[in-house]
Structure formats: C-alpha cells, structure tokens
Amino acid sequence: MNDQEERVNRPKVSLYRCTCRHCDAAEEELRRLALRYGAIFEVQRVDRDERLRGFAGWSTPIVAVDGVGVTQFKVDVKAWEEALISRTGGKPPALVGFVVDMCCYFKRGVRPAGHEACALECFAAGGPVGIAALDGRVFLALPDKRDPAPFESLKKKPGEEVWVEGEIRLRDGLAGIVVSRAGEP
C-alpha cells in the first residue's frame, strides 16, 4: 500500500483466483463492490505464483477484506458486501479530485491545469463533467435527481480540487458517481 492509499484509508479487497468460471464471476462482482464502497481491489492468480499454486482448483476463489478471510471456494456476494459495510460503515465513499471535462480528457488526455476556459464552454454546451480522483481513478459525474445542485456546482469549477459524495455505479467498464454532496476539500 502506498502513502496516498494509506492517507485515504480505503479498505483493501483481495481475490485469490484460478482460471475457472466461478473465479471469473467472483472477480466481476468484487470489482463492482470495491468500486461501490471505495475499496482498493487486487487480484492474485494462484496458478502463476509458486507460493499459492496449492490453492488452485478446489480452494478458489478466496476473498479477504483488509487481510481477513471472508470466503473460500464460493461466490457469496452478500458476505463480501457485509464485510465491506462493516469496514466502511456502509456510507458512500467521498472522492477528492479535480473537476475535468470528460470529452477532452478522453480525446486528448487533458487534465485540469490550463484547460479551464475550454471546459467551461464544454460544460455550458452540455458536455460531460468528470472527477479525476487523487488516487488515479476517473469518474463520470452524474446529477442526483432528488437534488441536482451539488452536481451543477461542479460545472463552475473546472480544474478545481473538490470532494464529492454519492453512489458509485459501474456500467460496462465506465465508472460514474451520482453526486449527492460536493464542496471544497
């Protein structure tokens, strides 16, 4: 774990897996849960590590949260989620990062510095807003239908460091956060 991850104090989900379909399903579900609860997710292939080869086949998937075993040889999404809730309190994670113009971010890799005026124009024209989190993850920011004001406030802050809270969603590999609260870090 690097210094930045320790400062953020995110839980760590570890999956020890082989090549079977059960492990494929476990990895897919754990990625979703880790994203939803703001956890760090790591995958170890037991068939590629001499120390872990004995676990291949009948023992995998093995899942741990912060080094504590949760399940072995079963896909149990409920148990994994309960372990993450006990570690996080079930609260949505707060992200700290910079407001980015997602069009320019994806097209040209443009980060906040020096791009604020263009981003304001893009946001005014309906371009997508994003959060480039300090931990390296990037999220599409989405308005909360119950209160769109926190999301709307982000449109006025391209390039600025902000914190946001909300439900994190993953669809076909794209991560988004439904912004329920936003402010300065």
Query: What portion of residues is helical?
Result: 25-40%
> What's the number of helices?
6
Q: What's the story with the biggest beta sheet?
A: 5 strands, mixed, barrel
Order of helices and strands: HEHEEEHEHHEEHEE
- Count of all domains: 2
CATH fold topology of the largest domain: OB fold (Dihydrolipoamide Acetyltransferase, E2P)
Cα-atom Rg, whole angstroms?
Answer: 19 Å
Kindly report the oligomeric state of this protein: single chain
Overall mean pLDDT: 86
CATH level 1 class label of the largest domain: Mainly Beta
Segments where pLDDT lies below 50 for 5+ residues? 1-7
- The amount of beta strand, in percent, is 25-35%
Overall spatial form: elongated
Q: What is the topology, as strand order, of the major beta sheet?
A: 5-6-7-9-8
Class computed from helices, strands and strand pairing: alpha+beta
User: What's the end-to-end separation, in Å?
Assistant: 23 Å
The second-level CATH architecture of the largest domain is Beta Barrel
Count of β-strands: 9
